[in-house]
Amino acid sequence: MNLSITVSPIRDESGQIVGASKVARDITERIEIQNALREGERRKDEFLAILAHELRNPLAPLRNALAIFRSDKASESIKAQAREMMERQINQMVRLVDDLMDVSRITRDKITLQKERITLESLLNNAMETSRPVINSFDHYLKLDLPPEPVYIDGDMVRLSQVFANLLNNAAKYTRRGGKISVSGRKEGENVVIHVADNGIGIPPDMMPRIFDMFLQVDSTIERSQSGLGIGLTLVKKLVEMHGGRVEAFSEGENKGSDFVVTLPGSSAQVSEESNDKSKPEEKPAGTRVLVIDDNVDSARTLGWMLELQGHDVQLAFNGKEAMAAAEKFQPRIVMTDIGLPGITGYELCPLMREIPGMKDAVFIAQTGWGQEKHKRQSKEAGFDHHLIKPVEMGKLEELLTSILNPEKI
How far apart are CA 402 and CA 382, in angstroms? Predict the structure, then answer.
């Protein structure tokens, strides 16, 4: 108990002190609140410092790569390696932002799982492919151990791949170069149990109860330059629990490795070969006219190049006035527009463009950095057919355009 004691003099009518009063108050709760606020401030400041560090990390190699491309002395081999590096670094930045958004959506119950019957092998191979660049960058040995017979799970492939990619990234970053990481899975009763183990730095006993807490890092020293934001394990726990499962962490202590065990409800139903036949080649849609509207010239041009590579006829506009004139003359089948345009928002522009003769049935796609549910709702209310979050990934864009132009193939 923490007490606050106040002593006050008692005076008579003449002002003379004739005694004293003492009041004791229990201020334990107030102290606990103050300590919690201070801890919250400390963790917020630490998180912001980590975020700034993690976002700066990719910027240095990206800037270096641009210098390489400007040099007339760089060989095509060096340029090719620089392009691959740029893609890795940009993907890392996108993942950081996506993780932050996912934590926000999960805590507000805004994520809906798209469950399907999937095999454990395809799930883990997908996660390993995502994490391969990180694992290879540390020269780790990765072993996968699965039973010969198929093991099925009813789950969201994207979200569960995210779970195991995060666990693999975590193992890679907290294991010294040239370490060993093993992934194994088995059917145990009605459940499927998956282990992601490493021989890395381990987890100190005092950290174990808080290992899945937000923004916690086992080792936040300067040497751990790729330690991330400390939200990966929080995402893992929440996504696994959304699937009706649980995740546990085990370690014998520092420098003795760690073992993360994910338990998920299994599925005993078999999948027909016909439903899983991926061997048939997909037909690509014929090209169409696409109008891209974005006041960020670089963003508009690079998106235009992506669309041209997919066989589309593309025209660019950088503000609302140019967009209206282009739409009237170009008559695009698809319009991709940013929301935050100068002088007019994409929400305002969309209904105006639909009034242009011949534009009523055009497909409007919002492509913006705003990705919360309220922004998607506003897009729909403004008349948009689809809402994409920047940066738009080429494969997803191609998939969306295929579904628009050849809906019978989807």
Answer: 23
Q: How far apart (Å, rounded) are the C-alpha atoms in residues 399 and 382? A: 24
CB environment 127-154: b (16+ within 10 A), e (fewer): bbebbebbbeebebebeeebeeeebbbb
Mean pLDDT, the chain, integer: 82
Is residue 355 over pLDDT 60?
A: yes
Supply angle C-alpha 5, 6, 10, rounded to 5.
140
Under the banding of pLDDT at 50, 70 and 90, the label for residue 8 is: confident
Contact 355, 376 (CB under 8 A): no
In CATH terms, 116-267 corresponds, of 3.30.565.10, 3.40.50.970, 3.30.470.10, 3.40.30.10, to 3.30.565.10
- CATH number of 289-409, picked from 3.40.228.10, 3.30.200.20, 3.40.50.2300, 3.40.50.300: 3.40.50.2300
CATH number for the domain formed by residue range(s) 30-107: 1.10.287.130
34-61 tens-digit pLDDT: 887 887 777 666 666 656 656 666 776 7
> Measured on CA atoms in the order 37, 55, 229, 231, is the torsion positive or negative?
positive
3-state helix, strand, coil in the chain (%, to 5): 45, 20, 35
